[in-house]
Write a sequence for this structure.
């Protein structure tokens, strides 16, 4: 997804970038639901294949994987709402990592949340112009 995003953001026509910051459209809804569901299915399958029992923290991780993948897809297409997915997933991830005893990663996701809020504000300002 990162390679797709880099390629998509880099595309130009007559020295103008083709992909501009935009809002989430009705057409994006079904693809977003499909990507979220597909990611959850794949992540659940990986957990199921590798573990005898899936615990609650694993289900939270499966859920956030879906959110993060959707956020990446929307970000690759410069949708303002991508930041909302990043923020929600980051907020859910902070206590998950803290519970798992990964304090530094928890702190990292607090920082990611702050950066995502700033990104949302900047993109919204740019879009409102």
């Amino acid at each position: 997804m990162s390679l797709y995003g880099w390629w998509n953001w880099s595309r130009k026509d007559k020295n103008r970038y083709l992909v501009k910051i935009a809002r989430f459209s009705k057409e994006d809804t079904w693809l977003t639901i499909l990507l979220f569901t597909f990611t959850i299915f794949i992540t659940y399958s990986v957990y199921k294949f590798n573990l005898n029992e899936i615990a609650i923290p694993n289900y939270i991780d499966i859920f956030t994987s879906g959110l993060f993948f959707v956020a990446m897809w929307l970000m690759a297409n410069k949708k303002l709402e991508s930041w909302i997915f990043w923020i929600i997933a980051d907020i859910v991830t902070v206590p998950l990592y803290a519970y798992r005893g990964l304090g530094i990663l928890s702190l990292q996701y607090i920082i990611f949340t702050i950066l995502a809020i700033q990104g949302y504000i900047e993109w919204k300002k740019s879009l409102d112009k």
Q: What stands out?
A: The chain has a mean pLDDT of 93.
